[in-house]
Amino acid sequence: MQAFYATEFVLPLPAGHRFPMAKYAMLRDAVKAHLPGVQLYQAHAASDGELALAHTPRYIRAVMDGQLSAAEIREIGFPWSPGMGERARRSVGATIQACRTALFEGEGVAANLAGGTHHAYADKGSGFCVFNDVAVATRLMQVEWQRRPGASSQAPLQVAVIDLDVHQGNGTASIFQGDTSVFTLSLHGAKNFPFRKEPSSCDIDLPDGCTDEPYLEALEQGLSTLDARFVPQLVIYLAGADPHEGDRLGRLKLSADGMAQRDQRVFEWAWQRRIPVAMAMAGGYGHDIGTTVAVQLRTFEVAQAAWQRWHQG
User: End-to-end CA distance of the chain, in Å?
Assistant: First the structure.
């Protein structure tokens, strides 16, 4: 199984900043140590042209040239630095590479060790999200699908975004509003950020303190709705660690086993329909960041097992 990372590109955050930048290198090292079957590759940077498939030219230039307003910087939550744009480009590039690997190279499953930046809109960033990797990768895969050798159908690639980060994917929902070629499914805390939510194709609000059983029932409901309304050819799965009971921002109460069951259900659903899956890790803000990394490592174990099913006999 192939996974893509951008851990050499970090933001210089002030002391005490609540974003756990160190978790990405920790996850890469954990995957390398415990899952030798996962091949790790440094991500390429997304180009301006690729970013422009989902973002306005003005916003792209403002990020890269340091021309964001003070309000825009506050909404993103990171201080601007020259590294902001480069790291964001690489995070998008990793999801692009995971999608290509899963879909076009026949791997079935591939992953980004970061990504899931679902709060970024076409014209602004938000909630620690600069560029929306899911939206850019979806649009680029649709372009490349039409350009593939022997392509004859005029129908666009059908992409399902299964967003199981604890926060609603408002930026992704906004970008794909009214687009019948993309189905956005979001399970999220009803009272959690963002407080103004955008309508997804299917939104399932969860109460504070939601535990394993009702969460998994809600996931079944969401997947059943997806089944009834859409036939995807690619799934982009946001496997946020923040529904875990140890997360300081999540407000839900899933156990480590419940999180693993969640991941298994998504990959089983996709396997039964032979739909390739590109996975992004999305959020995770544990009181102990090592706990977040342990949850994410189990997600990678589930993903690797799913990859192995694609390649057995």
Answer: 16
